[in-house]
Each structure stands twice: as C-alpha cells, then as structure tokens.
Write a structure and sequence with these properties.
Layout (H helix, E strand, L loop, with lengths): L6 E10 L5 E4 L6 E4 L7 H7 L7 E6 L13 E5 L14 E5 L5 E10 L2 E5 L9 E12 L2 H6 L4
Antiparallel strand pairs: 1-2, 1-3, 1-9, 4-9, 5-8, 6-7, 7-8
Length: 154
C-alpha cells in the first residue's frame, strides 16, 4: 500500500541539520506513528512521504519554509530582569511560557543576559533551519473512521 491522505504511517527517522549534526532520531526506539494529510508532521516531510510504501528508505531535505518557518525577528525581544519576577536566578537556555501579542501561549528561551537586560527568543528552536531526514517506512495502513474523525492515530 502506498502512503496517501488518511494513511496511518509508522516510520523510523534521523533528523540532522545541514552540518550533519543529529537533532533527533527514532533509532533504537519505537517508530513514529502519524496520520498522513492532516498536519501531524511538518508539511515538507508530509509531502515527501506521499506514494512511499513499507520498506522504502529515502533522504529528504526540507527548507525552513516547509518546516518551522524562517526566524521571525519580532519574536526576539530584550526585557528588563524585573519582567521575570519570582525567578531568583536567570540563565541563558532557560525556557518560559509566555503570551504572544495575539494572546497565544508560546515558549520563549533566554538567549542572552547583559546586566539588567534579558533577551528572549520566541521562535521555534528549528525555525530557520534546513532539515535533513533519513527515513525508513516501517508500515502503512488505512486509517479507521475514528482516527480520521479525530485527526490522529489511535
């Protein structure tokens, strides 16, 4: 069976950046299961999965625009240390939940501390990154009506 919209797919993958650094991998663990065609994985990889079959192995290079998007400079801000009231010690790399300007929850990371100025980044950690996937299709089956209705694998 070939992968099409509303297929349940199990795959093993290794994700690397353009320099070959491994970012994530299912190797040695359970394969990733997802429902094709409903946005459960990044758009570029979902497109590359179409028409593949069980046993297929391939490499895909996904540009940022088809993954987590480009870096948005508006999501990088410098705030006063007092904006982090209640947190005794701030360190680069710490993550916090915040609200975007439209009221949506986002995760921000401290990327710089300079005296009383704390710079945060609300971009996804993989925004602006070209993603390199090595993929092996483990299995493909038709989704159940319930899986299609719910938009995810059961």
């Amino acid at each position: 069976m070939k992968i099409a919209n509303h297929s349940v797919v199990e795959m093993h993958y290794t994700l690397k950046d353009a320099e070959g650094t491994v970012i994530d991998s299912s190797s040695g663990g359970e394969p990733l299961k997802y429902l094709q065609g409903v946005g459960n994985i990044i758009p570029g990889l979902e497109r590359e999965m179409l028409d593949k079959s069980t046993g297929d192995k391939f490499t895909a290079v996904i540009p940022p625009e088809e993954a987590y998007g480009p870096q948005n400079p508006e999501l990088i801000q410098t705030l006063p240390r007092s904006a982090f009231g209640g947190v005794e010690e701030l360190k680069v790399g710490m993550a916090f939940r915040a609200q975007s300007t439209d009221g949506q929850p986002i995760e921000v990371e401290i990327i710089d501390i300079d005296g009383d100025n704390v710079t945060i980044n609300g971009n996804h950690p993989l925004a602006g990154v070209e993603l390199h996937f090595d993929v092996e299709v483990v299995s493909v089956r038709e989704a159940t009506p319930e899986e299609i209705d719910h938009g995810h694998v059961h």
